[in-house]
Amino acid sequence: MPGQGKRQSNAGNGAAAAAAAAPAASADGGTAAAAAAAAAMEGSPSARKVYSWSEFEGMKTRAACSLDRVEFLAKSMDRFTEYKIDEAHRQELILRQRSTPSKYFQRSLDVSKTGAEKVFDTQRSLLTTHKTGTKRLEAMNRFFCDQEGRKGKQEFQAAKNSAKTAKPLVKEYPLYQELYDKPLRPDGQRRPTPGMAVMVPLPYEPPESALRHGMSQSLGSLSSNASPKAIGSKGLTA
Known about the structure:
The chain is mainly α. The protein has helices spanning 4-20, 22-28, 30-43, 53-97, 101-110, 112-130, 132-149, 153-163, 176-181, 208-211, 217-220, 228-234. Residues 3-41 and 222-238 have low confidence and may be disordered.
């Protein structure tokens, strides 16, 4: 973490390394002394990089922005799951209770995409209205000021003054269509296993053998990249 004390400590370590290399200067000349001093300063474990306050504020604003986007995606995923559950329930009632279910079922499918986009738009509007990105950055500023304040009043004041210069990094939240069109895997590879609708400690990943269970031996020996037409031409065992 940036601070005057660490910069002084590192400067002292560098001066000590240069002083240790001074005897070599009298014997081998200034070039050898400079090389030895540089090597000592770079190779010393105590020669850690000390970030300036401006660099530190940049890292803090980027972290706050990333956390805000993760929060948006997590909440949107929950709302989208709830939406699809309600949609599936409505479609089930249509198939059971309507005399002409195909008409109403198709109508439900036609508005499905619009409803999904509305879920993301609502979540985006909610986070934008409440300025969650700015509030998250303010919370991080308070945390780091408190941490620096434990070292002393001077460090606390330096952190407080630096926090005043931090500006929230604003990035547009992704749209539903952008997430829908985003490729999840390279061509020719197996897609990830869909997530389950329950919370479990570890997700279940079915083995490769389960994907070909019940197939004939000739069909089971085919690679997982076989086309559906090739699989359909072989057929399944009874």
